[in-house]
């Protein structure tokens, strides 16, 4: 029965490579996001397949970005400190090495800080020279440690710097957010750096029903084409970059901003926004859909409580008795994990808490000689990109 | 060999079915093995494929079908155990060894297997052959992937488009 050499039919290759189902089967099984990107560039059909939202969701689920370590930043620190994690992940060794040494390779960066970090990229700010202007630089090829200083922003633009953010897509280098508010009137201007040129991406203003009181720096988030800003009032300001709509999103009942690190927004896939809320011993995670796709289970516009954690129960064994939850200093996309600052007296630590497994780990000890705000920026392996299909 | 009304492989001789390839070769296999195919399973449950009838498979040639059945026969016992929670590590290692060797084949055969596994809806085999192709393109550039998988040469436009995309997306994924 094994005889007939002639019986293999003519090029099944064409049938396979041109069949969307089969291409999807193959692409979903490649080893890494890197291979996926390269395979997607093979031809238009493959690119379309790899760009499909449902496909990317499944791919992301089966190839989750891994935490390589984190940058700690604080006003009192001369430069961000990199702390490696998951050192068993040998495939991420080069990323860890780069992250650990990258800033030392740029001694001319004066008082550098981290603005944003996602998908294996890090956006730094630094002072150019002794009294120079603040500039931005992006670490965008982490394996090679390639740091690119970004061109300065044209001075004609407003100077009410609020945040610098890394984009959702790979074609944009970064966004710069300026904010100005008087009473109930809020004005936001977002400029964008693409192909080496800064331009205004959107200007948005609105009279909100109550004044924001204050708009909290350092926790501003870009997710799914929207910028989210935490305010002292009981809402988050959202700016839709595509439509230049500016509006307030009311917080869930009982959720308020008390001090830095009590209310932290977090990026989710598929237009989901998460927030972490710390109050007393309790850490709550809420989520909300930010679009109107009706093929999803969640209704847009409703907050859903996803998780509540007693910090003493999950992390208490790692710190001294009497330690309290001070703040949420960093979060992972899709509320996968959080970095919590906990302690008592002179002993404050950063605890890594994985929400799904409740696994907790002490990862950093604060310098006891100061009590400035610190922040943690997770550094992840590269995930699959969002392809910009409209240009094809 | 007499086929009982319903054989599950435990009461004496197992029930056999006949599959007929596109080039009219007849293959007699245990119903349990053929039932790894979702497409065939219903027909077989309805009592089809037995005796002199046979189930025609106009899209699968004999060489490919023989290879497909080699896979099904090997995997049928584990599948009958419902994912084999009680399979030993040795059994699993043996299946893994078999799978690795099984896909160590000429590319044209691999493609024929992909089509057959797809048409016959044999989940494990679909997964195995897709993984094999995915592994073949690991670490390759878009152009190398095209060559490896036997795409026709790109037109100048396609080539230009690939280069442009590589500039846009490639840098982050060196």
From TrEMBL, chain A:
Protein name: F-box domain-containing protein
Pfam family, one: F-box-like
SUPFAM superfamilies: F-box domain
Gene3D superfamilies in alphabetical order: 1.20.1280.50
Residue ranges annotated for the F-box protein AT5G49610-like beta-propeller domain, each copy included: 114-387
Source organism per UniProt: Eleusine coracana subsp. coracana
Source organism, top-level taxon: Eukaryota
Coiled coil: none
Domain named F-box: residues: 21-58
UniProtKB/TrEMBL annotation, chain B:
Pathway stated in the Swiss-Prot or TrEMBL entry: Protein modification; protein ubiquitination
InterPro entries according to UniProt: SKP1 (IPR016897), SKP1-like (IPR001232), SKP1-like_dim_sf (IPR036296), SKP1/BTB/POZ_sf (IPR011333), Skp1_comp_dimer (IPR016072), Skp1_comp_POZ (IPR016073)
Domain (SKP1 component POZ) ranges: 16-75
Domain of life of the organism encoding this protein: Eukaryota
Keywords, sorted A to Z: Ubl conjugation pathway
Gene3D superfamilies: Potassium Channel Kv1.1, Chain A (3.30.710.10)
Pfam family, one: Skp1_POZ
Residue ranges occupied by any SKP1 component dimerisation domain in the UniProt entry: 124-163
One biological process term in Gene Ontology: jasmonic acid mediated signaling pathway
SUBUNIT field: Part of a SCF (SKP1-cullin-F-box) protein ligase complex.
Record function comment: Involved in ubiquitination and subsequent proteasomal degradation of target proteins. Together with CUL1, RBX1 and a F-box protein, it forms a SCF E3 ubiquitin ligase complex. The functional specificity of this complex depends on the type of F-box protein. In the SCF complex, it serves as an adapter that links the F-box protein to CUL1.
Family, per entry: Belongs to the SKP1 family.
Protein name (Swiss-Prot/TrEMBL): SKP1-like protein
Organism: Eleusine coracana subsp. coracana
């Amino acid at each position: 029965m094994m005889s007939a050499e002639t019986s293999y039919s003519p090029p099944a290759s064409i049938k396979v490579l041109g069949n969307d189902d089969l291409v999807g089967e193959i692409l979903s099984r490649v080893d890494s996001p890197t291979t996926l990107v390269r395979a997607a560039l093979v031809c238009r059909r493959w690119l379309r397949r790899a760009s499909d939202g449902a496909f990317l969701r499944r791919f992301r689920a089966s190839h989750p970005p891994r935490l390589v370590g984190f940058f700690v930043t604080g006003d009192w620190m001369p430069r961000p400190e990199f702390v490696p994690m998951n050192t068993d992940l040998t495939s991420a060794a080069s990323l860890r090495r780069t992250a650990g040494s990258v800033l030392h390779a740029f001694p001319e960066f004066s008082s550098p800080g981290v603005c944003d970090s996602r998908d294996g990229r890090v956006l730094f700010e630094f002072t150019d020279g002794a009294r120079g202007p603040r500039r931005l630089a992006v670490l965008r090829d982490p394996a090679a440690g390639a740091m690119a200083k970004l061109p300065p922003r044209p001075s004609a633009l407003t100077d009410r710097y609020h945040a610098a953010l890394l984009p959702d897509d790979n074609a944009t280098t970064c966004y710069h957010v300026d904010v100005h508010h008087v009473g109930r009137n809020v004005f936001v201007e977002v400029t964008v750096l693409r192909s080496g040129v800064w331009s205004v991406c959107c200007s948005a203003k609105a009279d909100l029903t109550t004044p924001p009181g204050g708009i909290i720096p350092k926790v501003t988030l870009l997710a799914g084409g929207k910028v989210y800003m935490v305010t002292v009032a009981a809402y988050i300001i959202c700016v839709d970059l595509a439509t230049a709509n500016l509006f307030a999103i009311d917080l869930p009942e009982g959720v308020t901003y008390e001090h830095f690190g009590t209310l932290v927004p977090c990026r989710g896939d598929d237009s989901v926004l998460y927030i972490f809320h710390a109050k007393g011993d309790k850490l709550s995670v809420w989520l909300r859909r930010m679009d109107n796709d009706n093929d999803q289970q969640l209704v847009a516009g409703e907050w859903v409580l996803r998780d509540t954690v007693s910090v003493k129960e999950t992390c208490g064994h790692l710190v001294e008795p009497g330690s309290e939850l001070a703040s949420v200093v960093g979060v992972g996309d899709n509320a996968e994990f959080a970095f919590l600052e906990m302690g008592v007296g002179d002993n404050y630590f950063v605890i890594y808490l994985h929400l799904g497994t409740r696994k907790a780990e002490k990862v950093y000890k604060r310098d006891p000689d100061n009590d400035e705000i610190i922040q943690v920026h997770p550094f992840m392996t590269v995930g699959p990109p969002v392809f910009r299909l409209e240009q094809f | 060999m007499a086929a009982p009304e319903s054989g599950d492989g435990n009461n004496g001789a197992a029930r056999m079915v006949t599959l007929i390839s596109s080039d009219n070769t007849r293959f007699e296999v245990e119903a349990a093995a053929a039932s790894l195919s979702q497409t065939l399973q219903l027909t077989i449950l309805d009592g089809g494929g037995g005796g002199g009838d046979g189930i025609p498979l106009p899209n699968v040639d004999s060489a490919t079908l023989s290879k497909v059945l080699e896979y099904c026969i090997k995997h049928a016992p584990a599948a009958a155990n419902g994912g084999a929670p009680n399979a030993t590590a040795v059994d699993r290692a043996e299946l893994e060894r078999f799978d690795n060797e099984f896909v160590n084949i000429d590319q044209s055969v691999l493609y024929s297997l992909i089509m057959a596994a797809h048409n016959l809806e044999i989940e494990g085999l679909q997964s195995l052959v897709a993984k094999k192709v995915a592994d073949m393109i690991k670490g390759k550039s878009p152009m190398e992937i095209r060559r490896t998988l036997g795409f026709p040469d790109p037109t100048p436009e396609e080539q230009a488009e690939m280069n442009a995309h590589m500039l846009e997306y490639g840098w982050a994924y060196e």
